Amino acid sequence: MNQKLGKHKIFIGMAPGVGKTYKMLQEAKSLKQQGIDVVIGLLETHNRQETLLQAKGLEVIPRQSINQGSQTLTEMDTEGIINRNPQLVLIDELAHTNIPNSRYLKRYQDVEEILKAGIDVYSTVNIQHLESLNDLVAKITGVVVRERIPDRILEEADQVVVIDVTPETLEERLLTGKIYASNKIEQSLQNFFQRKNLIALRELALREVADTVEEEAQESFSATESYPIQERVLVCVSTYPNSLRLLRRGARLANYMNAPLFVLFVKNPDHFLSKTEALHIETCQQLCRDFEGTFLRIEDYNVPSAIAFIAEKEKITQIVIGESQQSVWKSLLRGSFTRKLMRLIWKKQIDLHIIATNH
User: Fold this and answer.
1) Three-state secondary-structure class, residue 334
2) Which CATH number is correct for 233-356, 3.40.50.10330, 3.40.50.10860, 3.40.50.620, 1.10.3720.10?
3) Is the torsion defined by CA of 208, 214, 219, 220 positive or negative?
4) Class of residue 87 by CB neighbours under 10 A (exposed 0-12, middle 13-18, buried 19+)
5) Mean pLDDT of residues grouped by 10 in the chain (359 residues)?
6) How far apart are CA 319 and CA 272, in angstroms?
7) Which of 318, 300, 341, 339 is nearest to 263 (CA)?
């Protein structure tokens, strides 16, 4: 048996249907074309046609049969994989609990044995299956996840890749039947796949991997060098009353991500604030303090440019702006304002959230 440990690459996402298995298969087929010996150890397609199509052409290690009284069930054949000894094996659903009488209780334990045999492993998992996030996920979604993996599995992996899509894209996939059968769609939308859940889980997935990368960076670089990778949230407020609701939404986002909160008000140098407007900005500033954030106030004729400048200066990774039904702001936010801001930040790996604040 090869004494050198295999390398482990984990594809992680915020929820079922983001494309983890598809991406894993896509990379594996590319490696096969380069001459790498790749096999499928365990694949859970959930009858998703695009995934099934992507798996074509890859060798599959047959599952082992395990007797369960009057039933015969199947599970991944760990011994069969090791005996086959490929260079790379693909194993879906890392947090899966094996059926009784299997060699190991959890699938990640099978993976550990395969890695010890010197075989590289590609695997998939959703963020809610991480042990340390269990309580937080239950608080966010109301769902207690039973199948979990220890944090060390993620920490010990040679590579962790986030397969990221927007909540809107995931909802579209769900509605078009690409994730679950039609009889499960409505129930999923009302429960786990609620928009607020998807936003929070997405931020958790991105933050978890960002924290892992930041730890590696801190180990790799000297103490005098600074490579801030942690999420940092900037909420842009205005003199309109809906800014308070926007600020609260941004603060929740920062809390989900365990990220520093910054709140920015850009004042037009030629505009004198009325008493009502000045009191409103003071209220925003006080609310920012309540959320333990940093309030920034600058004067600039060019609002998008000012936001982009502050974002770069404060190393912001998430910008939150509001969308209003008032006609003048509708034209700004949906027109040149948003486009200009996006042009200024798109190369800086900053996410832009445009949030409806009128309801």
Assistant:
1) helix
2) 3.40.50.620
3) positive
4) middle
5) 80 86 92 94 85 90 85 90 97 93 92 97 91 81 84 87 81 77 70 76 73 51 47 91 86 84 93 92 93 94 90 90 52 56 76 66
6) 26
7) 318
Distance of CA 100 to the CA centre of its chain: 32
Q: How many residues does the chain have?
A: 359
Give domain 8-220's CATH architecture.
3-Layer(aba) Sandwich (3.40)
State whether residue 16 is helix, strand or coil: coil
Measured in whole angstroms, the distance separating CA 34 from the mean position of its chain's CA atoms is: 30
At 14 the pLDDT is 83
Is 90 in contact with 60 (CB distance < 8 Å)? no
Q: What is the pLDDT of residue 281?
A: 94
Look at residue 3 in the predicted model and tell me its pLDDT.
67
Question: Which residues in the chain belong to E strands, given as ranges?
Answer: 8-13, 38-42, 59-60, 64-68, 71-75, 88-91, 120-126, 159-162, 233-237, 261-267, 294-299, 318-323, 351-356
pLDDT of residue 221: 44
The two structure tokens encoding residue 66: 């395990």
**pTM of full prediction above 0.70:** no
Domain boundaries, the chain: 8-220, 233-356
Query: From CA 257, how far away is CA 260, in angstroms rounded?
Result: 9
